[in-house]
Structures
1.
Amino acid sequence: MSVQNLTYLFVGITFALYITIAIRSRAGSTSEFYIAGKGVHPIANGMATAADWMSAASFISMAGIISFMGRDGSVYLMGWTGGYVLLALLLAPYLRKFGQFTVPDFIGTRYYSSVARLVAVICLIVVSFTYVSGQMRGVGIVFSRFLEVDINTGVMIGMGIVFFYAVLGGMKGITYTQVAQYCVLIFAYLVPAVFISILITGNPIPQFGFGDQVIDDPQYLLSKLDGVMTQLGFEPYTSGIKSTIDVFCITAALMLGTAGLPHVIVRFFTVPDVAAARKSAGYALIFIAILYTTAPAVASFARLNLFESTHNVSYENAPKWFKNWEDIGLIAWKDKNNDGKIQHANGNAFDPVKPKFNETKGVYGERLIANTASTGNNNEVYIDRDIIVLANPEIAQLPPWVIALVAAGALAAALSTAAGLLLVISTAVSHDLLKKTFAKNLTEKKELLFARLSILVAVIIAGLFGIYPPAFVAQVVAFAFGLAAATLFPAICMGIFSKKINKQGAIAGMLIGLLFTLSYIIYFKFLFPEMNSSEYWFLGISPEGIGFIGMLLNLFTSFLISSVTPPPPNNIIRIINEIREP
Amino acid sequence: MNKSEENRHQYWSSNLKLVFSLLLIWFSVSFGFGILLVDYLDQFTFFGFKLGFWFAQQGSIYIFVILIFVYIHRMKKLDEKFKNLSTEDD
């Protein structure tokens, strides 16, 4: 069977599976719709959390980014896993003990203020929409490359599926579909990784393989890669170019942001008790770590493979995947030295960085581009980082079913995250805005109806973002983590661990954190992008890492304001005492 | 301070002590070994990896998992101890 037919088959089977599960776990009450009736087993919740967490970005982009960043890519590995330690030790058990439906519920109650709740809702909606638009785009890319449908049709199919099971099943349906999606995505990630590890090092465990010797060569893989890269004028793979303070702050912002992300936190409301909340954080991290420890191995294999299969190879003999991805515009080649061969080197091959294709072909059949060749380096190739994971099985010449499996896995990763995010958004609207703020006498039945309606609206907006992606989608990702780190995380954490922080302190802290982080990012990313380099940054901290400073400002402001305003009332102190008990 | 309040106080302070010591390890393996000391540790090799690089891309993640399970286990014990203490009072 051809790759395309196999992909149709795999995607079809997995979609049928998700829909069957959704129909079997329909939600009947708001408790089932918002938090799956608190009846989810910790292992199932761990898997669902892992699928919820690992998005198209983790599955498709992360290994590619690490592949091109080398050691600096560690910020994502440590940042996106270390947050779970904070979540397990500082937030999850207490929020479960508190036992409501949403994150704004906790902030609104603990700080006895609907203004605080509203600020939390705003942070939540900004963070979640940023994320969901990226997922829809991921769905579109997979459909267009592997099923050869138009990107927009792909987005529409994805929207339809997510809408179907999110509206029908709410949190309950989503949880059990996510369990299935986790199994699909992790299997799809590991199979090619194991194959490639065996091909390159003979070691079937990728985590050990990338520290192993290369087959037919006494060299260790990483030192060989360092050598190849130095020869081509790159920094060695295992050394970094980012400054230590920047790496520190980005990692911290990603960790704190992870712990403050509403769609992850809400998963801990779905388990029966506090002990189960702790356990599911542990299981979630195991399930996540399986992918996150494989990703850096895949990254280094892919980088070596890329050089070995294309460097100094004439375009006419270039592997088929090179031309396939060139066809959809994610690879471009400009023969700068007119020798007909592909050459890699450090630096951007041409200016601007992203290729603009003419509709004509060159002497060797390559797609010609309008960009001017950049002088000062010999690099001739543009490669979009997003293709590394998707193209890896082709680069390593694995059988067609592995390629089809990766496509199904990428869809599982994108759909599971999109569904979780949409649910959080709809809950914030129907529960926090309507039921708790503007329409307090809403009946449960009506609230459920509004929850379903707001998912519909959210799906449509997310789909529009996927079809008409705002140019800044990739850049706004820095927002999501920075904002969560500077607003929600400190507000929740202080709410549990300090009895002094009052309403005024928390609101002022969240607003300062929000405004500072937002304006720093907007200043460098949108207003003065030409100044976005370390000599202009505050203390050399990039916009990706500034959420950490935002968090420090938030803490400082909260304590300062709380010390000059009246302390929280006695009934709040009682609530704090209660959530601290086992 | 009555007996149950004292128990509650004790429970909370042993909880804080546990969380603090686990977070100290969390900080050392990631921010310490993986970022601040990475270049120093890179002079040692560990199963074919430079040691600092290994902590940054592998080791810290394994230790994160272990930390959470140590926490789960210790808290379970602490919960049981506290439950026994409070039933003795009744």
2.
Amino acid sequence: MTLPAGVLAVRLGAPADPILAAAYWTGIAALLLTLLLGLQILRLRISLRARQRRETRALARWRPILNAAIVGDSPPQLPPLAASERLHFIKLWVHLQASLRGEAGAALNDIAARLGLADEARAMLGRRARTERLLAALMLGHLGDRQAWPQLLRLAGMDDPTLSLTALWALVRIDPQAAAEYLTPLFIEREDWAMSHVAGILQQAGSPVVAVLAGMLPRLRLERLPRALRIAEALRVELPADSLRDALASGDVAVVTAALRIVNTPLLQDAVRARLRDEDWQVRVQAAKALGRIGDRSDVERLVALLADREWWVRYRAAQALVELPWLKRPDLAALHARLEDRYAADMLAQVLAEQDAAAANAEMETA
Amino acid sequence: MNSHHLLLDFITWFVLCYFILLNGGYLLLNLLSLRTLHRKGQEEMLDDLPRAYSGLEPPVSILVPAYNEEASIAASVRSMLQLTYSEYELVVVNDGSKDGTLDVLKREFGLLPFPEAYRRQIPTKAIHAIYRSTKFPNLRVIDKFNGGKADSLNAGINASRYPLFCGVDADSILQRDSLERVTQPFLRDPTVVATGGTIRIANGCEVAGGFLTKVGLPRNPWALFQVVEYLRAFLFGRLGWSAVNGMLIISGAFGVFRKDAVVSVGGYRSNTIGEDMELIVRLHRLLRERRQPYRIEFVPDPVCWTEAPEDLKTLKNQRIRWQRGLAESLNANWGLFFSRNGGTPGWLAFPFMILFEWLGPLVEVGGYLFMIVSFLSGAISWQAFSTFMFVAIGLGVLLSASGLLLEEMSFHIYPRGKQLLALGLVVLVENLGYRQLNTWWRLIGLYRWATQKEASWGAMKRKGSLGA
């Protein structure tokens, strides 16, 4: 139907009426654009096929060489790396590196060094193509290339979260100590960096980050404290009790809940107990959990009182905390359940006890 | 010129301008999508790298409402238990099924009654019992009185343990890494309250163990038309609006939500057909009223595959339901329309939906009828009539072709040249009848909404071969 109408319109020429003519030319423009889109789709498909063929050839040539290197059988002579194979090779190399540890990774680094890929990757970091920059940052991180430090540092400061986080990962791989000092404040500042990614990167940096983070906490502005505490939690950092005591006394709910999540010392029992009656239910939830970790026998009644809290999650965490207390055995818990007068409290403890039974049964099944 | 001619001219130009504006609007959305897809393509190789979990990924509760699904529920649940994600639970809600859905679940997953302190944050129909699987610790089943899909989702929200929940249809086929992909926006932006992903047509594909193993195109022409339709709807309809935080729908087949945000607006509305769209529009309306910063994002990755209707009657019913759902969702949230703090959703997306999606069928069908009748009665010239058809169909083809271009730029799911050729043909052919038919069905939907017939689960006739 499009074609006859179009042909007819062309035969008749554009209508004289100005609005009809505008519509006619809109139709013609749509037709021409559709043809262009069709050609572009074809071009994309042809270039995709060509790229796939080049990739298949590159992988067929280089995968056996890299596999041999991984098992310690690196060939004495390497074939030259063609320009058309470069990106495919780096992709394969990065993928293998990400799956390997130890000597195998060093063998792959040796292959990259023999092919002069560190220079190439540094040059790629300066190009505009984002894919090349990402690949180059990954490669330089695995290579531990110190020469790339200034370039990576520049990338790490960019607004693009994917690019900057990849550069940060590379910096941590290259020098965890220096990266911890320079970058831990950045990790705390940049809200657009996903916490799970930040934690994943910092976990690789290890102990230097812990020291830097512990030193920074007392000086941090209040609004940065929750994120810093969350990072400390992810890295399982044992922060000094005094730093945490200050955070627990804060008037900011986010700071208090973040601090409660990482409390792990009986030295802070009183500070935690003071939060059991907090107005904010999220604080009470975390306080109940924390007491399950650090509480003593005197806290049983406090937790029992929380079983009747108006908020479901507070009751649930209080019940879990009670069940986790090492000196409360099953008969003690059953007796406790029997004496509960509040229906909500009794229901919640019954649920958590049933969950404990189910978990034990599952564990038994897995062992069997 | 007499008044009769003036009126005729006015209607002719109104219809022409409407068609041009409608398609022009969608082309603008297309341009917005291009940038997002381009950046996504640059990060593609990062997706292939081995994934390490830091333990800070937010855990997700997958909610699966089920009503008379005894034939496929076990396979669906089994496949959903194999998703790759750091921590998730599966909550199946049996919505008073009349068949053996609950018995199948009990038998296949070793369900036992569990003394759960059910948390009633959103009112729902009464719960019969809650079961826990003895085989899979992260599987629970809620058995409740029949109350519809929205009511089941609300019961699932009440029972869920995690801060994010993912509502899925029981017959959805999920990509193994779908949760990883669709939760990404939650990781980098704490203001994100909902995300959705691209839904694809599973007809013609091969499925094994509840997962898609080979992508193919359906032979059935109705399903084939829907393949191109879904490309258009998701790759630029939703992605374009998402780029400006104006997306008004996340498909009920697969969407991830921040639970506290959904509970704060009252959960799903149970007396509507389009509960998925209504929730998103309401989230926009209420969060904007509260001046709470938020984002609702679309992830273009194909995360979920669904079986499309292959017969005319089922397809017609589906489209009528969708249009009614759209009308109900917009009608329930007029407060967003040009509201003081409405932003893109209130000042652009909502009016766009009203003008082109809600009233669209009325103007489109009216436009086609008017042109045909006017031409046959000699009121307008052949030139005016043919120009109208030329521009209306030409712009439609352009839109469909741009959907195909976005697909080829980003995911190129259909690898074979023959498949691309077939889709190219569909792009042309679907504009010569199928789209007009759809518009007619939508008009019926609009009429049924206006006459207020009762909402229901809406039985969908499927081949069901995919669940085998």
3.
Amino acid sequence: MRVPFEKRTLANGLDVIVHNDHRVPLVAVSVWYHVGSGNEQPGKTGFAHLFEHLMFEGSEHHRRSYFEPLQNAGGTLNGSTSADRTDYWEVVPAEAVRLALWMEADRMGWLLPALTPENFETQRGVVLNERRQNYENKPYGLAQFTLARALFPEGHPYSWPTIGETADVLAASIDDVRGFFARYYHPANASLVIAGDITSAAAFEMAEELFGAIPAGPAVGPVSSPAVEAKAREVVMHDRVDLGRLYMAWASPALFADGDAELDLAGDLLANGRTSRLYRRLVHDRRVATELAASQSSRELVSTFQIVATAAPGQSLQTLRAAIVEEIERLRHAGPDEAELERGRAQAEAAFIYRVQSLGGTGGKADQLNAYNVYQGRPDGFDADLSRYLNATPASVRDTLAQWIDPDRATVLSVLPGDRDQPAGA
Amino acid sequence: MATDRFVLPAPGPPATVAFPPVTRTSLPNGLAVWSVAHASVPVVSCALVLNRGTAGDPPDRPGLASVVASLAIESAGDRDSIALADALARIGAHLDVQPAADVTVVSVQTLRRHLPAALDLLADIVRRPQFTAGDFARVRELRLSRLRQASRVASTVADRALIAGVYGDHPYGHGALGTSRAVAEMTIDEVRAWWSQAWSPAGATFVAAGDVDARTIEREVARAFAGWEAAAEPEATPLSHDAAAPRLLVVHRPGAAQAEVRVGQPGPPRATPDYHALVTLNALLGGQFTSRINRNLREQRAITYGARSAFDMRRAGGLFSCDAGVQSDAAAVAAAEILREFGDVSVPGAVSAEELTRAQAALTRGYVRHFETAGHLARALVDLATYRLPDDTFDRFVPRVSALTAGDVSEAAARTLRPGACTIVVVTDLDRHRAALDALEREIEVISVEF
């Protein structure tokens, strides 16, 4: 599978990647900064995400909302923050590509002069409301935070939530934020994709003109992190829910490391969808669970493999846990059937094709080119990525599980119905 | 030409975009077959639009249409539930079934090379569901659990309270999932009866978009759906009634971390002649990040992560509503400001030429974004089929919106918005935040929402 592109690196270190697709008069712009909540320090969490908000509030030569000019040009835009990276994107009619690139350049090079205490306070309030809406006011909404704190040692970059601890967001100062920007938000720590109805010559010319004068900024080294010890950990929390939910989690091979794709496949055949072993057993046959999911959340430092099961009314989490452990043990010893794995490969191949339908936005072609470029140094990772799935064997899945997913050394969180242990918003 | 590097560039003149031609035919049993070619990735997006949805639920069986939909994708043809899911997974096809108010949509996305196999499976689901007792018992239990879970989600509680408050006992007044009471009482015979009436080629449309030609689609659909017998077409849903008396419905949620606020009223059907004026109105009032309401509540007051308004226009009426999750102490302010914005925009002269131009530009320049992928085009065809819209609907949009005047928009607002009669819903910790609601000067009706 090919997504053709050209890549050049500007003198200031900015990678520029262009992909032509003239089917529809649209252009997608994606900017990745290689900074996420993993670059933060304990006590100063939530900066990368708070920053994402401030990046839409104006820059030196456009001191107002970023949404207005782009929406009025028929574009759509957003950004997102993870532990490893932050992305900003626009999808615009082809005639507005210069506008989108101009705005990305202005906030990359000239953000701080427009950063006012008023904007800062407003966005702090918005972020705290976002935290309430998406986590605190949702059933099970705080479970992932609790699980990460239990799984990762204190001070590990993945031990705190990307949206930040409320106390840290409240304590953040505008000077802290300025320092964070200077260190991480510059061309040498960024990657730009321009994809769609545009010629390569025009795209590179605009990129050079608009981004070329921005100073490179200091080199950003890899994040260091303490090792995650594989051992048993048990956590119980209560929440205002009707049904208990069990989370079992393990530290697992990092993004693109050996075993990463195998665990993605293993998650599907264990607990995703009606064909999975645990769904058949717990939901279809015994009817003791209502929901099941497994995921390999791939990240740069270390990934997390996780199985989540929600009990049926009147069923104990212990019943679910015993079945999950048994199925993991079976896979660790016998591996999957070839027919099971064949199904997983077919799904992976189809998913790769479905994924290259959209130009932009989260998960579109521009986003994927940036992901491969930022994490692997080359945008053309599609085939190599897919071949990891197509080359997985029953033996490689079995061995990966045997090495990493030991039921006796899992971090287990039980969420039980009751009153929430901590007052919401604390 | 030299340009100043530091001046915001204006976009160039917009490109003219035409919706791709739709090829239409029909089978002898009445099933319409529409397709659009979209050559990019070897993928085809298909959907079968069945002419009955949740508004067709019997009054004492809210949720029946949706239980039928859930059960049809279990065992079907000669496969049991697991084998059916396995067959779909082995070709990488994605199946989805959506019970909407006016229609039920069964869709499948497939690689082009697996189109015949995907349509065989789709035909099994639609024509030959098994409705076994075992599947029924399991699906019903899962539905009851899901309803219990949903009753704990504040935004879902608020949405359900709003539609019940606005529509009352109209067929649009209940959620697709139904209620535990109705689901517990349902029988497999009711499921079969509803399916045999509603899942029929009469009034149904099959749509496809993707890297495939119309003849192939027609041939494959004819192969899979020939001989499917039609039932009688259902009766049309009666028009929803006009705005009710103003109410303040409060759901007490102990320990809630924030308040969910809804402000809503009955709205016009999709066929309204005001369609383009109202879409433009919503763009400047509450439909976008830069709209009046979000600027007010998020960017000026910082009391919410976001506030959005929307027209949900259906065959027989609709809903106009605004929703926001807000700080608990600001629930009344949020509701009052939303009502004030509804009122302000309806006053003659309220919409400036500049504001109108911005909203028009956002809608018209951005229109092409809705037709980027095969999935987008298939959804557009589903809309045409659901609301029985004219063939040139998408090509008329840009000229119609561009021709609107500020007067057209505020007159449409005045005809449509009834801030004095809107229903307000607040889901909050009433013990802690009752005082915060006093400012609304409406009688608080504490309600419980049935799930």
4.
Amino acid sequence: METLIVNALLTFMVVAVVVLARTRNLFAVIVLSGIYSFLMATAMVALDAVDVGMTEAAVGAGISTVLLLGALHLCKSEEAKPAHRPWLPLAVTAATGLVLVYGTWDLPAFSDPEAPIHKHVAPRYLQDGPRETGVPNVVTAVLASYRGYDTLGETTVVFTAGAGIIALLRRRRRKEEKEGQ
Amino acid sequence: MKGDLILRVMAKLLIPFILLFALYVQFHGDFGPGGGFQAGVILAAAMVFYAVIFGLDNARRALPDWLVETMVAAGVLLYLMVGFAGLFLGGNFLDYFVLDSDPVSGQHRGIFWVEAGVAITVSGVMLKIFYMFAGRGTEEE
Amino acid sequence: MNPLDHYDYWVMIFLAMAGLFIVIARGNLIKKLVGLGIFQTSVYLLYVAPGKIVGGTAPIVSEAFKVYSNPLPHVLILTAIVVGVATLALGLALVVRIRESYGTIEEDEILQADTAQEPEKQ
């Protein structure tokens, strides 16, 4: 039953992306990307990744849509031009996709408890994490304590993005006043 | 949207609860899903909601530019201070065991302050990006 | 081998290829950024889906549950999501500046304007 729910959500995502690729109205493209993010967040919750689902819903479906709508309003563009016949990109992506499918042939089946991913580090985190850190949520324990250095790097990435946007979009007020005079 | 009565009333009712929910997600990240990133984004979303309904100038009066820019840097600084506190108290960088007499409560303290730093930076950056995008359109006209 | 066992991998590959197709085949800059976001989001699926155990629960340790899904991919993907939105925000800021400089956000018109300017500069 859980597998059926996950597969159904994945199929809806495929449909949303196919419609998005063919739509030319940019406002519809942005709404469809919000729908796709919500479906991804639901799929994450169905896959027991509750932290990831909450973050994807807030960030992907919330902030991303707001920023895209803001940029669309500033660019004042409504429709993408009609595409030329995209045979070469279609062929390249289809070939790459087929090679990747061949590559995933030997990967472990969905929800296999004997898969290598469950063998080395994860059981140690699940058993010793709450005892060593006193925090029942193992994801928070790993994120903030065991791998706290990576989270420091990620916070720096967010800070750098903010600094970059301030540098790109800041108005030079004094220069404009001088040009006016 | 200042003239629309329903939107104004609903916004006044909902925004305090959204802010409270952001604080709940932040502090209960240890016991349920949540943590610094989610709380920061929900906080920024509440302020974006306020700016959309009541106007960007009112939002800038509630959270001025200098405060948001300070928040952007203060979170990363707080995270680094926790790391250096571990160093000064005798352990390694970002070592939480030495932050308190008992190793487990040292971990609690370290995780608390680290998540607070992350939430401050993330909310500051998301809000600042929104201010920049929304403010640029109005300045052009 | 049951083909449905690998359905999540194939969906992820299709989504990634669709995102790649949007990036290389469509000319509008905002649509390209949306396609890039779709590519990034499909990679989250690749990491989280193998960690799931049917009959298990979310990795929040409590007395009532014995089997938990793998928490390690969740941590990596949390970082990836935030980095993805940072990339999107910077890309959109660049698109806004391009629009103010060239007056358009269609890729072929921008390239035409660039090649028209270059003989003048030389």
